[in-house]
Every structure is written in structure tokens, then in C-alpha cells.
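Example record

Each entry pairs one chain with its bound ligand, NAP.
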Amino acid sequence: MHVVVNAATSVDGKLSTRERRQLRISGPEDFARVDRLRAESDAVMVGVGTVLADDPRIGLDDPEPIAEREARGEPPKPARVVADSRARTPPEARILDGSAPTYLLVSDAAPDDRLAQLDRETVRIVRAGGERVDLRAGLAAVEADGIDRLIVEGGGELLFSLFSLGLVDELSLYVGSLVIGGRDAPTLADGEGFLSDSEFPDLELREVERIGDGVLLRYGVE
Ligand SMILES: NC(=O)c1ccc[n+]([C@@H]2O[C@H](COP(=O)([O-])OP(=O)(O)OC[C@H]3O[C@@H](n4cnc5c(N)ncnc54)[C@H](OP(=O)(O)O)[C@@H]3O)[C@@H](O)[C@H]2O)c1
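C-alpha cells for the complex follow.
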């Protein structure tokens, strides 16, 4: 599986405010780029923290890429993947709107009654891990279902785990021209944090492009 992390931060590396309120970091030109990225992917992944904070739909609405996907024999819209150990995704969440399949990666800690509430035709429950989702095993199961190209759109907790497991192949980072601040505001990679050079993911800067008021940085990740 090829995994691309796509995120937008402020110049101080924050994904949102300390209240975890979603905000517009990039503009229309970058949204179009993200749509293209989604159109070329088999699935788009987020952590349940992002589902609870932003209730994203992660759709693809433009008829042109949808038609192109269908012409290639692909499903019209990319699937969605949520890392959600305890099945906290609300049954009415927009990511479960049925417009594309949603894989819920849960762990053994997910209560049966919550899973029963989420049981529907377009939801695929994947159990992996004891307390927390075992991302390596969960993504392997999703890959076995034909998902080869995955975009991960945050948030910081999930991204740290993916970086620490060496599961990220590329990073596309849009840095908007704003400072958000706040020691408790989520950043691109939260989690426990790395301690030394030997742990830092090996990034290779491949491209720098000005888009709107900000800059897009593209990295390969070893
Ligand atoms: N600017 C952007 O590009 C962007 C993009 C996305 C999100 N955001 C912002 O980011 C914030 C949300 O980020 P977040 O860090 O709180 O949430 P997150 O990374 O979306 O989700 C984290 C949650 O995922 C679950 N999870 C399951 N297995 C995991 C694993 N192995 N490793 C890590 N997490 C795992 C955990 O909850 P369980 O233990 O319950 O499973 C964890 O608390 C929001 O403020 C949102 O607005 C910004």
C-alpha cells in the first residue's frame, strides 16, 4: 500500500486551534489539489479525533473526476477509513453517509453495542489490536480488500503513530501564512513524540510550490 499524508498547518505547525476547532488554513487552489489527490486514491483515512472534532464527510463531488474513475473501472468515490479503537464514531457522522464504503478500524476494546449501532451495508468493521488499533494489521486488512493508494488527512495523534510505524511513504504539507499558537493546539505529529535522530522519520524534500498565500512542501518519507 502506498500511503500519502496530506495536511495543512500554520507556520507554527498547528493543525487547528487549542479548542480543536476546524479552520481554513488553505484556499480554493489548494482545495482543488486535495480533490485531485482524493480522486487518485482508493481511500482517505482520518483518526476518530478528527471525526469527533470536525465531522468531515471526505467526499468527492466534482462530476469530472468521478467520471474518470468510473472510466478506469474504479468505484466512483474513494472509500473512507477511520482509526477508532472503541467505535466512538457517532452513528450519524457524515463519514458514514453511505456515499462510499467506510472501513472502521476498531480494537478488541470496542463495545459490542456500539458496533451494533454502526452496523450497516456500507460500513466495514475491521478488528485489529487489543486496546488501540494495530494500524499495521488494520491497514493490511484494508489492503487485502483492494485499497492500494491511501491518503491520510490527520489528525496529529494518528499521524504520529503512522510515522512511528514507518507506514508513511509521502508527505504533502500545505503551510498557510498564519500563526495559531497554543501549546495544546494539535500539531502535524502529536503522540509521544520522537526523542532522537535515530527515531525521526527520514524526510526527503522533493518539491516546493507556492499556492495562494501559502506553500506546498512535498516530501518522500523513508
Ligand atoms: N489542518 C488539517 O489538515 C487537519 C486535518 C485533520 C484534522 N485536523 C485537526 O486535528 C484535530 C484532531 O486531531 P487529533 O490528533 O485529536 O485526532 P486524530 O489523530 O484524528 O485521532 C486520534 C484518535 O485516533 C484513535 N486511534 C486509534 N488507533 C490509533 C493509533 N494506533 N494511533 C493513534 N491514534 C489512534 C485514538 O482514539 P481511540 O483510542 O479512541 O481509538 C486517537 O485518540 C482536530 O482539531 C482537527 O480539526 C486538522
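The longest helix spans residues 28-39.
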